[in-house]
From TrEMBL:
SMART domains assigned: CYCc
2Fe-2S ferredoxin-type domain ranges (all copies): 1-97
Any single Pfam family the record assigns to this protein: Fer2
Protein known as: Adenylate/guanylate cyclase domain-containing protein
Biological source species: Adhaeribacter soli
Length: 327
């Protein structure tokens, strides 16, 4: 008995019931990589199942061991360990040449999340030091670097404590995500708790060290949003090369940038705010105009007004929504 199996971008081939997908593809002339000879050890025969994954045999013991180690998503299978049970399966070879093999197998890319890209719902967290430039201009390079390291370590400790992952750092800020190993509600909770921990730890650091020794007070702006993003590893030899992309990332970055105009150091999108199990007190909501979006975007102000502003110095809280502004 034979079934038809489609290789995307290549051809449809017949597969006998007793043949593995690898055996069938080789028999049909497809140059399918199989470095270990089909023993389920090298993973070079891996395929992505585009349709009909339920029409395949379950993973063998060998495949399951590798799946656990490599953390393969459900739609990645080893062709040498898999048989077809029905028509209607479409797959795609992932390793087609030596460059693919170097990227996916010889590198460490395979050990990390999103080797082939996944769409995930994540909490997105941007933070930036607001007033670092004046400090930088008025202090010794040693002190600048030393304090920057201390502040970034405050950021990192809080993010790690709440199971976040730092994706990128740029100058005096960074970008992290929460939810790689949890559901979105928990992820947003974690992002907000990490943000509050940073604000508190920074307050203590300012009071005990920065202000007494440097007559300066560091402030930060935090933006949090949640949404569907593409997560993948673009591994080009750099360590830790996880990339997270998508429009929600841009929104989170813009919320962080908007903290200054909204005069609040912690801005969260209304969408993410509604996901929180115990939403913190909000000083009010704001409405932002995002470029390319016709309706205004609602945010909640869950931090404090910046120091040095009239609101902050008088201890007066913002009572209503700030004016709209264009991001
Ligand atoms: S050929 Fe090596 S794992 Fe399939």
């Amino acid at each position: 008995m034979s079934f038809s199996l489609k290789f995307k971008g290549e051809k449809a081939i017949p597969v006998e019931k007793e043949q593995t997908i690898l055996q069938a593809s080789l028999a049909a002339g497809i140059p399918h990589y199989h470095a270990c000879g089909g023993k389920g050890q090298c993973t070079t025969c891996r395929i992505m199942v585009l349709t009909g994954k339920e029409k395949l045999t379950p993973p063998t013991g060998n495949e399951q061991v590798i799946r656990n180690i490599k953390k393969f998503p459900a739609n990645i299978r080893l062709a040498c360990q898999t048989h077809v049970l029905e028509d209607g399966v479409e797959v795609q070879r992932l390793i087609r040449d030596e460059t693919d093999r170097l990227i996916f197998v010889d590198g460490n890319v395979a050990d990390t999340i999103g080797e082939i890209g996944e769409r995930r719902k994540l909490a997105l967290f941007f933070i930036d030091v607001r007033n670092f430039t004046p400090f930088l201009e008025n202090n010794l390079p040693f002190d600048v670097i030393h304090l920057m390291r201390r502040i970034l370590s405050i950021f990192k400790n809080a993010i790690v404590q709440y199971n976040g992952e730092i994706i990128d750092t740029a100058g005096d800020g960074l970008y992290a995500v929460f939810g790689l190993d949890s559901k979105i509600r928990e992820a947003v909770d974690s992002a907000v708790l990490a943000g509050f921990k940073i604000l508190e730890d920074l307050r203590i650091y300012n009071n005990t060290y920065v202000r007494p020794y440097f007559n300066h007070t560091f402030e930060v702006g935090i933006g949090v949003h949640a949404g569907n993003v593409v997560v993948g590893n673009v591994g080009i030899g750099l360590s830790h090369n996880l990339t997270v992309m998508g429009y929600p990332v841009n929104i989170a970055a813009r919320l962080q940038a908007a903290t200054k105009e909204l005069n609040n150091n912690f801005v969260i999108s209304a969408l993410a705010y509604r996901l929180l199990k115990k939403p913190p007190y909000s000083l009010g909501c704001g409405h932002l105009n995002l470029r390319g979006v016709s309706s205004t975007y609602e945010v909640q102000l869950i931090g404090h007004p910046y120091l040095g502003t009239s609101n902050a110095s008088s201890g007066k809280l913002l009572s209503g929504p700030p004016d709209q502004f264009l991001l």
